Every structure is written in C-alpha cells, then in structure tokens.
Amino acid sequence: MTTLDYWVIVIFSIGILVAGLSMSDRKADMQSYFGASGALPWWMSGLSLYMGFFSAGTFVVWGAIAYEQGWVAITIQWMMAIAGFLIGRFIAPRWRQTGVLTAAEFVQQRFGSGVHKFYTYVFLLMSFAYNGAFLYPVAKLVNVSTGLPSHYAIMLFGLMAVLYTTSGGLWAVIVTNVLQFVVLTAAVMIVVPLAFERVGGIPAFVSAAPEGFFNLTGGEYTPWFIAAFGLYNMVFIGGNWAYVQRYTSVPTKREAKKVGYLFGWLYLISPVVWMLPPMLYRMVDGNLAGLENEGAYLMMCKEVLPAGLMGLMITGMIFATTDSVNASLNVSSAVFTNDVYKRINPGATNRSLMWVARLSTLAFGMITVLVALMVPAMGGIVEVVLSIGALTGVPLYGPAIWALFSRRQTAFSVLFTTLVSLAINVFFKFGAPPLLNVMLDRMQETVLGVSLPIMLLAIFEVVYRRRPYRIATSADAAADGAEVASHGKQQSALAIKTVALALLGVGLMIMVLGLLAASGRPAVLTIAFMIVALGTCLLRMAYRKRTIS
C-alpha cells in the first residue's frame, strides 16, 4: 500500500465518524433513539439490514470458496436473496404489525416474564461474543493491510463505533450504514472491470476456467446443504433481534415489506459482483492452497487497483464489518434499557432512560472491545462462535417467528424447543466426536440445526391445536403506523441530508483519486460521477422532506 492509500483510510474514517456524530439528538427519547420514531425510510432501513448482515468474512470466507469452486459461492449467497424475499412477503410486515420497540418486548407480551428473561439474557450474552468475533477480523484486516498492531486496531475502530452509536442511536447507525454501502459498492464496482481487463476479458476467463467452475453446487455444498442454509438465513435474518429493529422502525407494514424485498434484490445481484474478483484471480494464480485461498480477493485488489483505491477498498471492508457491531450494540442497549431496566424501574423518567441507554451502549461497546482483545488468547474463538451461530440461530430465533403466525405455542413449548435443540446441537458438535466417535459434516450439521427446532414446533402445533392463544398486536400498529411524529420526520430529513452531503464528499474524493490514477481512470471517474449524482438527488429529496414537514 502507498502513502495515498493510508491517507484515504484516515480521511474516510474521519468522514464516517463525523457523519455518525452529526445525528446526535438532545431531544431523543426511547422511541427515537432505538426505533427512529417509526420514521425510518424503507430504503435506508433495507440498506442498513443489508450492511448489518455484511462483514469482511464475505470477502474472506466466500471469496475462498469462489476461488476454489467458482460459482458455488454465488449460489450459496443467493439463498440469502430468497430468504429476503420471503421475509419481505411474510415476516417483516408481521413484526411491524406487533407495534413493539424490541423483539424482546414481543416475547414478553406473548409468553410472559419468565420466557422474556430467558431469551433476553441469552441474547445479551451471545451479543458480546458475536460482537467481539466481528470486531476481531476487522483488526486482522487492518493489521495485514497496514501493519497496525491488531490490539490498537481493535481499540481504535471499536471506540469509533461506540462513539457515534452512543451519540446518535439508531439514526447514527443507519446513516453510517448507508454511507458505507456506497463506499464499499464503489470500491467493488471499480475492481471488477479492472480484474476482467487483467485476465484478458470475459471470453478468456470462460475458456480458461477450471472444469465445473460454473456449476451451481459442488463438493460439500450439496443441494441439501444449500436448501438448509437458505432456511437458516430466513429464520436468522427474520428473527435476529438486531434485524427485527429494521422492520419495526419504518412507518408502515407496506414499507416493512419493502425492507425485506430490497435486501433480497441486493443479495440477488451483489454476490455476482463480489465473487468475480476471487474467481478471476484463479486465472492469475491458480496455486493458492489451504488458508491462502482466503486472501484471493485482496490479492486481486492489489493486482489491479491504482494508488489510493486500495485504501478505499480496505476502508469499505473495515466499516462494512463494524456495521454488524454497531447494529448489535444499539439493539443490545435497547433490550437492556427497555426490557431490563425499565421493568425494574417502571417509573423511570425519559431523562433517566436515555442516560441508561447511552451508558449501556458505552458499556456494551467496552465489553465488545475486551472480548475482541481476548480472541488470540482464547484460541480460535471466532470459528467456534460462527459454528455455534449456525447451530443456535433457528433454536433461538425460530420460536418467536413461529409465534408471529401461530395462536397455539406456549411458554413451555418455545422454551422446550430452544433448550432441547440447543442441547442436542451442541452435543453433536462438541460431545459426540470424543464420546461416540461421530462427527457431523457441514451439511449434516446445518440440516440438524435447522430441522430439529422446526420439527419440535410443528409437534407442539399439533398437540396444542385446541388451545388458541392471542397474537399480540398494537393498536397503533393496527392503524398501520400512518401517523408519524413530527420529530421523527425532522430526523429523517436530517439523515437524508447527512447522507447526501457525505456522498458528495465521497464522490469528489474518488474523482480526485481517478484523476491521479495511472490506470483504470475511466472506471474510477464513472463511479465518482454516479456517486455525485446520487448525492445531489438525495440532497434535493432532503430539502423537499424538510419543506413538507
């Protein structure tokens, strides 16, 4: 990397921090800090959902599969697109209909305080591990790219995420998510044409690709695995408490549907663009083996990107990954403030609730940094956490989604399903290999993790068929959320204006990098002009919204 790349990383990092801090709101209450006053534009919420599900692992893990097996990596990610469409059609509007601030609040309404406490404490404990696991790869990426020691990178980027999430709440998370989406998309769109040029164009790529490189499935990624993976993602994206916030914070059920649909369309298109660089790098160097495959994406970037643009790509990867941390910090604080502190102190004033909200965000952020710092000493916790995530996603989030549609599930049935599924899944992951000499492969592990809780819930559905239970629905939500607070509209206009101004700055900076580039200038300048045009359109939209409100 060149000096210009380092300057790009610094300038973009400062810009993202400033954009997040600009959403600080002294008039904030619980609904605005955690729910954007129900005034979150659907396209912002959809982009935030997309980026919140994103991480550097997208390029590392899926990039390694794309380099090794080709189109299979795209097929796997297309399952997320199908999940998004199903969520938009069925699950997202149901969440919006409940009228709750958090998914934990729905669990409380539906199943009572005992079940609520169990899921709340489990979610908070798991969020610490997940956040640390997401923050650690960011530090490794920075370390490999710039040489900055991992522990300094963890503290630096962890502190940045905590600062603007604590200051601006959900609005700050959303604004930075949208900005980071544009930065990352710009970087990827620049890489792809330069990578094709490097290998001699599309015909040369197709003719030189290994046999079976464009097959939809292959190796351990069988049709059964891909189907189970798609179902898992539908439950995880549709039920994870951090993602539920994206469906409940938009004005209407119709806009909640659009959030899911936008996620689906983005995951239908973007995997093709993302996976092409590591697939093309197979033509440049076909000798990567083992863990070297994980660097295929960055290797292609280093191969084709001019000075300054590599810094843009690294910045996009860094903040795309911290998006997951930001979203989780905000919803963890929401759960603690709304579903723990508020129930202990039902007479708490808005002032005290907001102090707790900000202090808990800060505290959870510090814990996240500490967990990330301990990762090297704990020996591969990232892989363990990700593996457990595949086994726990449906047992933890599936019952709540089922309860959105079912009148029959009870407190006992959902707790039994979760506890039994977790126990069996964890046993086969960690206990069965040494005790029974039985080790499930990836397909079997995924199918078990998805099918067992669904089967148990279906059994209870039959057993309790004569015991109807009311589905909680807010009176405000039943009116479809047509009335949105004036303050929420003002924050919405401010958010759009902040994104617009940030995009104008991003576009102009990329334009400068294009003019300085020794190669790839047309591609860079084209992307820069598109970002400036987008920023200009959003700025006009912001002024129009402010005039109307």
Which architecture name of one domain does CATH use? Up-down Bundle
Provide the CATH topology of one domain. Answer: Sodium/glucose cotransporter
Biggest sheet architecture: none
Order of helices and strands: HHHHHHHHHHHHHHHHHHHHH
Protein name: Transporter, SSS family
GO molecular function: symporter activity
Pfam families: SSF (PF00474)
Family: Belongs to the sodium:solute symporter (SSF) (TC 2.A.21) family.
Task: Describe how the helices and strands are arranged.
Layout lengths: L2 H19 L8 H6 L6 H11 L4 H13 L2 H27 L4 H9 L1 H34 L3 H50 L2 H7 L14 H17 L1 H8 L4 H32 L11 H9 L4 H36 L5 H25 L6 H25 L5 H26 L5 H22 L11 H4 L7 H31 L4 H28 L1
Helix pairs in contact: 1-8, 1-14, 1-20, 3-8, 3-11, 3-12, 4-12, 5-10, 5-12, 6-7, 7-8, 7-14, 7-15, 7-16, 8-12, 8-13, 8-14, 8-15, 8-20, 8-21, 10-16, 10-18, 11-14, 12-13, 14-15, 16-17, 16-18, 17-18, 20-21
